[in-house]
Amino acid sequence: MNVFVTGASGWIGSATVDELLKAGHKVIGLARSDVSAASLEKKGAMVLRGDLDDLDSLRRGATEADAVVHLANKHDWANPAESDRAERAAVETLAEALVGTNRPFVVANGISGLVQGRPVEETDPSPAVGPGSNRGGAENLALDYVGRGVRTIITRFAPTVHGTGDWGFINFLMSAARKQGVSGYIGDGSNTWSAVHRSDAARLIRLGLEKAPAGSRLHAIAEEAITTREIAEIIGYSLNIPVVSIAPEDANAHFGFVGRFLKLSMTGYSERTRELLAWTPSGPTIMEDILAGAYKEAGQQ
């Protein structure tokens, strides 16, 4: 298939491009910079210049492709409303271009915030509905197009998609530990996170693209529940620094913006996903990655 990928040079997107090319697919990657374009071309992918606000480029990429993988997101923490607006507009533009084609349309989301007080299951619908909700309600918007001849496949990612080069949550926790001289967890550290290695997430995207039926919700989750205290202990061991409890009211000052996420349990299940696609995660665990030095550069700049 000719696969149009947004976010093609990003953390998950770059691994997905590698996975698709390795499986024999052709890739057209959306690139907003010369550096991103050169990286994609070096891999053997084609390039379409543009970004999430360039709706004409999104429309062209979707129209000319056999499948679409939408991974890009502005992630504007200072202006989340703008990120939500852009996400909804992008998903609507891509989906409209695919109406009546029955082509696969993979749309990324996260498991965090979908349900409260228990792990998220694939059968759980997203509560985000409408333009003013999280991600602009893009998951539900994309699923609305199933009845209009689009093979929408939602892929929900664990809160940490880890590996060498990760700039996400674990990177920030490692950086905070180096800065503070201690590896911290909040309260008793019983809050739990799910995790998945980047290579396993990329393989799931490819399998979903190839096999998942319209309306599927896939969970890119390898490890279902790791306590934040366990994560702190491994970080402390790897840096040879003390491991301490941080009071909830001090979390933001100690960890930075990631402190508000460390206060939460963000977990989910993936049994249905594994059965549906015969997906068996095989990458390193988050603990193995930390101990192997995947985050040795975090906080060193």
Automatic annotation (TrEMBL):
GO terms for molecular function: aldehyde dehydrogenase (NAD+) activity. SUPFAM superfamilies: NAD(P)-binding Rossmann-fold domains (SSF51735). It comes from the Bacteria. One of its GO terms (cellular component) is cytoplasm. InterPro entries: Epimerase_deHydtase, NAD(P)-bd_dom_sf, NAD(P)-dependent_oxidoreduct. Residues 3-212 form the NAD-dependent epimerase/dehydratase domain. Pfam families: Epimerase. This is 3-beta hydroxysteroid dehydrogenase. It comes from Paenibacillus ferrarius.
